[in-house]
Amino acid sequence: MTAKASGQGVHRSAVLRCVGLGVALAVSLALPGTGRAASDSIQLADVVELSGSGASVGTLWRDAVRMAADELNAKGGILGHPIAITDYDTQTNPSTSRAMIQKALDAHPYAVLGPIYSGSVKVDEPLTQAAGVAEFTGAAAKDITHMGSAYIFRTAFSTESSEPRVARYLVGDLHAKKIAVLWVNDDAGRSTRDALVDALGKLGATVVADVPSEAGQVSFAADVLKARRAQPDAIFVYLHEEENARFLKEARREGIKVPLVGDTTLMDAQTIKLAGADANGVVGHAMLTPNAPIPEVQDFVKRFEARYHVVPDHNAIQGYMAVWMVKAATEKMGKPDAQHLAATLHGMTIDPATEPGILMKTTVLPNGDMDRQSFMVEVQDGRARVIKVLPMLGG
Amino acid sequence: MLWDNIDLLIAGLATGATYALVATGFTLLWQTSATVNFAQGDFVTLPAFAIIGLHAAGLPLPLALLGGLVIALIVLGAMFKLLLVDPMLSHGLLPLGIAAIALGVALQEGTKAVFGAEAFPFPSVAGGFDLGPLFVNWQDVLVLGAALIAVAALQMFLARTRTGRCMQATAQNPTVALILGIPVKRMVMLTFLLNASLVTLAAVLISPAILVKFDNGGSIGLSAFCAAIIGGFNQVRGAIAGGLLLGVLENFAATYGPDQYRAAVPMLLLIGFVLFRPQGLLGRATERAV
């Protein structure tokens, strides 16, 4: 009898504990509580290159994303919902990037910001597509918006948009017929090289030296020699910022006199800082530049410099713009609606007159590419100066 | 064509000379304390950051260089030996090697946390002179000259001074050296301090070309390790020969070889030496009881 009573007591207390836990769980889920802030906030997963060879690129993007979120939160967030940013580090490694995207998607973010490196985006894109989450990337490789995802959005020009402009400058303005092409052997570099060679061919110019290099390459003596031996009228260079600086130092050392023409990274603030006087005279196309003669851009640059004590580059500007693209589309919908965010963005034109954080008038094309003004830039006295503003392709 | 090759040779020797300095540190540490320092490349990064940090803080460049050397001697010399190598060495080579890799990661992440992920320029010597149709950079002359003078001085120190000979005796047989009255512990510490000095010099010489960035150490360390193996891991002069050879071969392979395989050259060379001449170019074959 005692044993039976004891057994019943154990059973009863176990049942009561289970019921208590169940009630507590139900209450915590049903009532406003600790989970509410998370559900009310707009969760943005920032999946970028925070270590590895792309760390400098990803860090500037992340800093600008944080700045945009803080500025918007100071004004009440998006439609009253605060923005919460969670950072994930791709380590500049496509397989890590894919794992980080999956981890980010498991937390059901409103949108994914990044990565920036094309190789990473190519392997990530199917995941955001399957999850139906909008992904904003600074990657430039052509394939990215040709993979059938309705959820991918560029903040950078595609190489298909950029390189015809560079080719026109080389052939039309510089009257160059023989071009040496130096490019970094990764997805963005290869895509840039392919698009430029194609565009040059259509304009009747010849590629006389086609020289790939590795990311992180230390010596450019052989590359410069190969280009010099081909006796080109101009040399086109598409490398990462640090390699640009190493190349420019070597090119000056070897007495290269022909025009050095690039796209965005060659005239980037980081390249100029590292190459010093060796960057003077470099010219090229810049999809974004902190020296753009646009008041909104100049204002952003001042605020970024005041906050982080570094000059923002094109990656920082893109990260900032990405958050404002999310804001503009969400406000157009009238409520945070992750499922319809992508559909709302397609075909949308965002104007700084109504959304000052977008900095420049931007149109999102149906395939996720974007259109806006761009710039021809020349480095003079250690500063990138805009020598020509190129109109939006769509007028 | 001839001048082009001379140009490549000069640039390759300048790069190779810095590999040689770092590789020499590898062999010194191996000989005196059986330490394979896999953080050696990252050791080059720390003094570079220390120097630009002190310079940015307002110290004139010579004082910043001196400050960088002092920091390297303390952190990469004395502290490295006392806090990591000494406690780990009794556990065997593998745990020590893994601890050195961990130290390298810690140095990378530490410098990134303090200085950020972007690269920084390093002061260099401007100008140059014409040599036939070539323009030879003073910076390349400085790199090659300083590295060669440093290794020659090191060789003289090891061969001609009492302390140097004591260090060699310690390297060859520490037990016998101890019986002969050589202060073995002091000699080993001196080797670590010498290594810290060599990586500081390498940092000063190579940083103008490759810039200062938190993750530079990986490629420098790998090249220097290959150079040490190629030259002979148990000979300082082998490490020098290996470094110079590797620097020159990298440039010529990049010019005349297939572009896609340029990064593989050091590895192919390393594999070739391990298979067919494991003692390296100038190293001694040694026997070991198993």
Explained architecture:
- The complex is a heterodimer of chains A (395) and B (290).
- Chain A has 395 residues and is α/β, with parallel strands linked by helices.
- Helices cover 47% and strands 19% of the residues of chain A.
- In chain A, α6 packs across α7 (187-202), α9 crosses α10 (269-275) and α12 packs across α13 (338-345).
- The longest helix of chain A has 29 residues, at 2-30.
- With 290 residues, chain B is an all-alpha fold.
- Chain B has a single domain (10-276), classed as Orthogonal Bundle (ABC transporter involved in vitamin B12 uptake, BtuC).
- Chain B has 11 helices and 2 strands; from the N terminus they run ααααββααααααα.
- A two-stranded antiparallel sheet of chain B has the order 1-2.
- Chain B is globular and about 60 Å long.
- Chain A binds chain B through residues 50-53, 55-56, 58-60, 185, 211-214, 216-219, 221-223, 225-226, 229, 241-242, 245-246, 249-250, 253-255, 270, 273-276, 310, and chain B through 4, 7-8, 11-12, 15, 109, 112, 116-121, 128, 135, 137, 140, 209-211, 213-215, 219, 250-252, 254-255, 259-260, 262-263.
Query: How many E-type strands of chain B?
Result: 2
End-to-end Cα distance of chain B: 53 Å
> How do the helices and strands follow one another from N- to C-terminus of chain B?
HHHHEEHHHHHHH
- Largest interface chains and counts: A-B, 39 and 34 residues
**What share of residues of chain B is helical?**
over 70%
Mean pLDDT of chain A, to the nearest integer, reads 89
CATH superfamily of the largest domain in chain A: Response regulator
Number of strands of chain A: 15
The oligomeric state of the chains shown is heterodimer
Name of the level-1 CATH class of the largest domain in chain A: Alpha Beta
> Which structural category fits the helices and strands of chain B?
mainly alpha
In total, how many domains does the architecture of chain B comprise? 1
Task: Characterize the overall form of chain A.
Answer: globular
Largest sheet of chain A: 7 strands, mixed
The CATH C-level name of chain B is Mainly Alpha
